[in-house]
Design goal:
By secondary structure, the chain is mainly alpha-helical. It has a single domain, classed as Glycerol uptake facilitator protein, CATH 1.20.1080. It has 13 helices and no strands. α2 crosses α7, α6 runs parallel beside α10 and α7 crosses α11. The longest helix has 32 residues. The two termini are 30 Å apart. The model has no long low-confidence stretch (mean pLDDT 97).
């Protein structure tokens, strides 16, 4: 079997989308909770690997490179172990434009999967906080976890929206490459490099942020982590659930929708199928 050509990947993506929207509520919920947990595992693992580098402005870029190399494991687990990820499922838009699935079924899939991803990511954030691992490096991991969360809610709505577009453009290309590969190793490599690029670049992923920011909110309740972070009380007070939901998650989610559905799914649909 040979790797698929782009036009063949499009057909495979549409066929996969049809199966996704026909899945039962139970299956979608279980697989989406798992996917949210897989992405959160990747997020906490990338923080653990790179927190010393990320804490230093001189080595920040290298920290992002290392974090990106670890983070790709999350999408690899989602696609190869089985999972439903909201950002990847924005590719269903091509099947909806082709009228192979209804808009109602597409939105149903997105809603269930989004909620399930949120539950899975929150679960890992709470377990990580309870585990005591944020105390790693003399509390530096907890401090960096807080600083990452603060930086993410510091974007304007427009900035977060654009960063969400750029992120899911690359994430959906990773899914696209995985659809086209004919071996397990090929799928892993196809996933790894676009994800490495998006994390290294600093783009914004809604499901990853379902871990990053809640983890920071939980970590800031520890006085040691808050102190080591070097952030002022005023800045720490601004790290709230409402700022997370409205200031970051909402615009990033909208950007992710555009990045995956328009710049990958619909773009390739009109390039290879529609006149």
């Amino acid at each position: 079997m040979k790797p698929l050509k782009p036009a063949e990947i499009l057909e495979t993506s549409i066929e996969a989308s049809i199966a996704k929207v026909e899945s039962s509520f139970r299956r979608l919920l279980i697989l989406s909770v798992l996917a949210g947990a897989f992405i959160a595992f990747a997020a906490e693992g990338s923080n653990m690997a790179a927190f010393n580098l990320l804490a230093n402005t001189d080595t920040y870029g290298l920290g992002k490179v290392l974090a990106g190399a670890v983070f790709g494991t999350g999408l690899i687990m989602v696609l190869l172990c089985g999972g439903e990820l909201f950002t990847g499922n924005t590719l269903i838009a091509a099947a909806a434009v082709e009228k192979k699935v209804t808009v109602r079924k597409m939105l149903r899939n997105w809603f269930i999967v989004y909620c399930g991803n949120f539950l899975g990511a929150l679960l890992i954030a709470y377990l990580m906080n309870y585990s005591g691992l944020f105390a790693s490096g003399g509390g530096m991991l907890g401090a960096v976890t807080i600083k990452i969360a603060v930086s993410k809610i510091g974007y304007s709505f427009g900035q977060a929206f654009v960063l969400g577009i750029l992120c899911n453009w690359l994430v959906c290309l990773a899914v696209w490459l995985a659809y086209g590969a004919d071996t397990m190793a090929g799928k892993i490599l196809g996933i790894f490099f676009p994800i490495w690029l998006f994390v290294t670049s600093g783009f914004e992923h809604s499901v990853a942020n379902m871990y990053y920011i809640p983890a920071g909110i939980l970590a800031k309740s520890n006085e040691t982590f808050a102190s080591v972070s070097g952030l002022t009380e005023e800045v720490l007070a601004g790290l709230t659930w409402s700022d997370f939901l409205l200031g970051n998650l909402l615009p990033v989610t909208l950007g992710n929708l555009i990045g995956g559905s328009i710049f990958v799914a619909v773009a390739y649909l009109y390039a290879y199928k529609r006149t």
